[in-house]
DUF112 domain-containing protein
Amino acid sequence: MDALLSALSMLAAPDALLAVVAGTLVGIIIGALPGLGSLLAITMALPLTFVLGQGASVALLLGIYCGSVYGGSLSAILINTPGTPQSAATVLDGYPMARRGEAGLALGWATTASAFGGILATVILAVASPLLARIGLKFGPVEYFALGVFALTCIVTVSRDNLAKGLMAGLIGLFVAVVGQDPVTGYLRYDFEVFDLSAGIGLVPFLVGLFALSEVFWRAAERVNGSVPVIRSAFRCPSLAELRRRFSMLLKSSLIGTWIGTLPGVGASSASMISYAEAKRSSPNRDKFGTGEPDGLIASEAANNAVTSGAMVPTLSLGVPGDPITAVMLGALVLQGVTPGPRLFLDNQELVLFIFLMLFVANICMFFGGWLMSPLFSRILRLPEPLLMAAVVVLVAAGTYSINGNPFDLLVVLLAGIGGFLLRYNGFPLAPMVIGFVLSPMIEQSLRQGLLMNRGSFLGFFASPIASGLFLITALFLLWPLLSRLRKRVFSSATVKE
């Protein structure tokens, strides 16, 4: 009880409340600007932690973290550009909703799902963080590989209109991701003696080029043909009836994001893809995915914002960052005199409770901040089409260049934009390419490490109960359409005989 009262007194401090509100709003703005992202936002705020107190520093960083992950959905919905890599799956259904005149509802669903996922994950974190940390430790390379293989099955589900082209796009994404150093041996692959390729293709330049620049080219082609879509939006929260109807999707996606967040090194980008794959498998509206289905938007946003809380589990309980962003936050905590690890819950219990409470407050601020700021972002769509597209190009170029200060990233954006436009023109879906690109590093590294652990034998992968269960679920998922057709054929044959 004394620890809770101390945490509440830290929470009530004016500097802490001001820091979390300011951090959340700044995070939303930075997250909405294509190419910047959560990591850059938190890194920019690190110097402020030297002049702020412990409580205000933690509040500022948590607010920026939550706000920036959500902010990426704004540009994903409005201009078909994921502001952060965590919002890559949001584009798949968010932008189609906007194009058919439901941008306001799409923003409402993204805001609601983000806040719900973050709050639920925070509650789970407060209750079960030690247990979740122990479960996360059970995941090794073999289990990560099985999880990645399961996530890849969503390439099949989002490519039902043209499975061959979808699989080809997914393979292209997998191939592009392996350019650079081998994660095990360090040898260079497919660098074509270009020094800049030795570090691989960056996720942000690839994504913003594939979606944002290809969209600019696509809009230009439509203008030539005399058909320019006009997106009108007015922020609208979903009704209570709509929330009740889709509550199970909100809950499941939030739980997936929380669980993925507790696994060190996976991150919100993979979590949103895995959640999207599961939603595509189980949603009653699965056939509408990719055309503007709210369930797809909910799956992505609830999961990636639940990761923000889930990733704090290994960070606090084990001192192991859940993703690169929490790695920076881990350093900030150490600078504040906090030593994350198993004894943190015993030696500094009031700070742990303060972090839980501040995550809760940050997600509430994120909801109201999104509600207030989404209409401001949507007003950019009132600009004339050429000005809007020019602004997108400038933002993409400035945001991408600011990450590494490397002109080669701009070339990647240009080539990805041209490639994305050509693929769209020829009827290839972009979603499988993104899925393959995002999941490829995790799958390759865990596969190589798993083979080393099992002396080159793949049979050793089935010795893990967790991996075997994931492989079984993947097989059932892939074979289910065939089994359903066989069952219907047998049933119809039996009916005819009768």
Notes: The longest strand covers residues 180-181.
